[in-house]
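Final report, section 2: Outcomes. Of the targets proposed, SRR1-like protein is the one most frequently requested by collaborating groups, and we therefore present its record in full.
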Amino acid sequence: MSDAGEEWQVAGRRGGAARKFKSLQVSSASTCCQEQLDIGKTVKRIKDIVSELSFEDFWQEWKDQVQEAGSVTLSVATENRDTEPPPDPQGEGTLCPQLECVCYGLGTFSSCVSARYQLAMLLLLLDAGQIPWKNCSVYDPAFSSGERDVLRELGLTVLTENEEGKRLITKPTLFYLMHCGKALYNNLLWKNWSLQCLPLMVIIGNSFKGMWDRAIEREFKQDYGYISQAVSVCEERPLPCPSRVIDTFSDTAVITFPTRCLNKLPKSTWVEPPEPQYQDCNELEIILRHKQS
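The predicted structure is given below as tokens.
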């Protein structure tokens, strides 16, 4: 049995650990080991898992769903252009919009099997969406220097600043947020809370409806107001998850924000949306950036 195959079985036996906020669970021992990563061996290990996943039946539906969502988002960007598209420097027509990608909260993939499979799935999705790997920015405060080197060797762009999810987008962007904390999703929605930005966004991550169903309504509206508003106007397409990988890919959906749905919200919704604060929020599942003293 291959190394990747052995991991595949382990991934299905991890209990509920993978569903927790991965970035909060980093021991000093594991970090020490990560610093001494064999970069080439780790890259090969991940690419072996990419190959393995590509032959899984459920991958084809993931691929179809993401390609469809990306196509719709790109068409929105094209329709919203105020000017003619720039000419193609090769003289082959006009340049079309291209998806970019941002991945937060991947976790310590050198020591966590689930995170390793989630990274491999990210690479498959980049190819499915025709996104150059260099156009995918990744960040997790838990990454070791060795893991950052692995990501760079793969060709991804490693961010150096903890954005707390507060990234304003101006181009069609795929966000890959596997099992991230609710505050990160909420921050991302707040930063892009407009009729111009939200339709440019595709999220692959935990179902908003699932978050809502598991929460106490009053507390959820108070702590995660942007998710609670988005639940009623986003479109979610659940992604299949075989039982053997339930802890790696469970509760995952493709989430988009069609303009026709966003228009159902009152116009006052979009006026000066306040930044989330979370002072009274219990169990805040996000690592905040260090404040300058």
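Strands lie at 100-104, 136-139, 157-158, 173-177, 201-206, 235-238, 252-256.
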